[in-house]
Design brief:
This protein has 153 residues and is mainly beta. Helices cover 11% and strands 39% of the residues. Residues 7-136 form the FAS1-like dehydratase domain.
C-alpha cells in the first residue's frame, strides 16, 4: 500500500495567517467544558501574568489552512482516522495574536494491523508571531487505511 506520495515528504503548505479572536477562544473553552477564567476574562488572565485572554492548549487545532495541502488533497476521507497529536509551545496563544502558520509533511510509515494495511501520515503545524518567533507546533499523525477498510456510516 503506497498511496500517499512520499516524494512530497519535506514539503510545506502555507504560509497562511490566523487572527486569534477572544470570542473564538471563549467558544472553544465552552465546547471543551473548561471553566478556567483565563480563557474568558482578560483581568483574570492578567492577574495570572498573561498579556490577555489566553487560548486553551489544544486551541490551535482550529487553525485550518485555507485549502487542503497537496499531499492529502486526493485522499478518500472515509479511510482517514485521527491519530496522535502532540503540542509544543514557546508561549501561550493570546487573543489578538496574528500568527503565520505552515503545515509541513514530515513522514509516512506503513503498518499492518487487525483491520489491514495502513499508512501513517506525519505532519506538523507551526505557528509564528509577527516577529517570526515560534509560538506553537502541533505534531499530528493520521491513519490512512487501505481500500476496502472505509469507515461505515
Amino acid at each position: 500500500m503506497t498511496e500517499i506520495d512520499r516524494s512530497l515528504i519535506g514539503s510545506e503548505f502555507g504560509p497562511y495567517t490566523v487572527e486569534v479572536e477572544k470570542g473564538a477562544i471563549r467558544k472553544f473553552a465552552e465546547a471543551i467544558g473548561d471553566p478556567n477564567p483565563v480563557y474568558r476574562d482578560a483581568a483574570a488572565a492578567q492577574a495570572q501574568g498573561y498579556a490577555g485572554i489566553i487560548a486553551p492548549p489544544t486551541f490551535p487545532v482550529t487553525f485550518y489552512p485555507p485549502e487542503e495541502p497537496v499531499w492529502t488533497r486526493d485522499l478518500d476521507r472515509r479511510r482517514i482516522l485521527a491519530g496522535e497529536q502532540h503540542f509544543t509551545y514557546s508561549r501561550p496563544v493570546v487573543a489578538g495574536d496574528v500568527l503565520t502558520c505552515r503545515v509541513i509533511f514530515r513522514d509516512v510509515q506503513e503498518k499492518s494491523g487487525k483491520s489491514g494495511r495502513m499508512e501513517i501520515l506525519h505532519q506538523e503545524i507551526r505557528g509564528e508571531d509577527a516577529d517570526g518567533k515560534h509560538v506553537f507546533s502541533i505534531a499530528r499523525s493520521t491513519v490512512y487505511r487501505e481500500a476496502g477498510n472505509e469507515l461505515k456510516k
